[in-house]
Design brief:
With about 210 residues, this protein is mostly helical. Helices cover about 80% and strands about 0% of the residues. It has a domain of about 80 residues.
Amino acid sequence: MTETLGIWVAAILTLAIFSFLWKDNPLFRLAEHLLVGISAGYYLVQYAYSAIYKKLYVPLIDQGNLLFIGCAILGLLVFTRLIPKRSWLSRYPIAFYVAAGAGYSIPSGLQARVVKQMQISMINIFGQDTLWANISALVLFIGVVSVLIYFFFSAEHKGVLGFFSRIGIIFLMVGFGASFGYTVMSRITLLIGRLQFILGNWLGFL
């Protein structure tokens, strides 16, 4: 009975979201508000458990690590934002958070987005195992060089420079198109999943 009730509620809410294809209506807004409210409540509990209990209460109270007192003070100072006369105190934890986040994300971002891509680009074009691998390496080399030439603005794009910059535009458009197609494909996958749920789990046609 509980499983059947859950299927009916999920199906009705799915149809309520799909009703926006007709026009904006109170049923769609109700489903939208339920989604936002339930999601906010769920993530609030998850973040409170992972941040307050697991990362503060357990190391500070259970394990006796007094260094986490400073973390607790910084966390409490954030709430001084709600007190107009003491709101300036919230700048300290925010500054610490931004500085620590930048120090952590910048090296990892450079490693993942710059160094790794440079390593992949530095390959032997004609020294691969198969013909297809050699062609792929050659296409990768041409793409990297032509895109870099496209963003080289110190000289006018004429002659050979203009030719390779136009090739760079083609590579950029192919890359943007592939990214857009991947996004559309993921949304279509979600739609197929909902249709399979309605036709199969709810109506029993599949």
